[in-house]
Design brief:
Layout lengths: L4 H14 L11 H12 L3 H19 L1
Helix pairs in contact: 2-3
Amino acid sequence: MPATKAQIKAHNKYKKNHYDRLEMQVPKGEKESITSHAKEYDGSLNKFLNRAVKETMERDKNNG
């Protein structure tokens, strides 16, 4: 059953209040490669990018 307008509005309000958005640019042609890798290993691009950022930040802390 599709979401009602009220449900969509509530969901969007929740996301606005609980999440920040980032925009990322990659060279032409790399988006598909990254997206397919993310789906294979993490299930979603968002989960993959969050994991990649967290792991890189932790590695940088340990090497700094």
